[in-house]
Amino acid sequence: MIDTLLDFGKIVVADLILSGDNALIIGMAAAGLAPELRKKAILYGMIIAAVLRIAFAVVATKLLGIPGILFVGSLLLFWVCWRLYTEIRDNVDEQAELALERAEDPNRGYTGKPTRTMASALLSITIADVSMSLDNVLAVAAIADGDTNMLIFGLGLAIVLMAFAATMIMKLLTHYPWISWLGLIVLLYVAGEMFYRGVFDASTGIGPMMGWIEGYEMGKGH
């Protein structure tokens, strides 16, 4: 029970701290719309981001059972940690906060005649989000470790938070940067655990697969 709650907490933390780049893209795209369309664009953009993550994460959860994938995934997750570190260093959350505030203020951003439609803005958001979803997908799928219900429940909460409280979340991360650093530590731990299992797990590790070692059972419950 405690392990499940901890894993749920890890998923929520990972989803929140990895949402800065999405919020920045959504805020910038919405700011280019007419004022009356911006709030809708932000809401729809957040929902698209969350739904894409759930879909990709469910697929990734299944793929992580393939021998060798955990090892490759751990290397990618270490890369995600490096990306997150550079985002924290470059104050991406602060930029995202300003972009969302600018988009939500009818007196700021673009105020002339409409030059793009809601559909074109959402298309831009979706394309950008697909290219940025790998980080979130890897993190939550690795933490869930095959538990699809926990994965969907955790990301379902993130949908609510990002769809209805995106600006508040960015403010929180901007004003309390230690949350982002804590999240980075959590992701590093997850990446390290994933790497260890990717090498030594009897079912999916590259060590047993290549015949280097016998391997150990490392799934949930072991």
From TrEMBL:
Coiled-coil region list: none
Highest taxon above the source species: Bacteria
Annotated keywords: Membrane, Transmembrane, Transmembrane helix
Residues that span the membrane, as ranges: 12-34, 41-60, 66-85, 150-169, 181-200
Annotated InterPro entries: Integral_membrane_TerC, Integral_membrane_YjbE
Mode of membrane association: Multi-pass membrane protein
Signal peptide: none
A Pfam family it matches: TerC
GO annotation, cellular component aspect: membrane
Subcellular location: Membrane
Sequence similarity: Belongs to the TerC family.
Protein name: Integral membrane protein, YjbE family
Naturally occurring in which organism (per UniProt): Litoreibacter ascidiaceicola
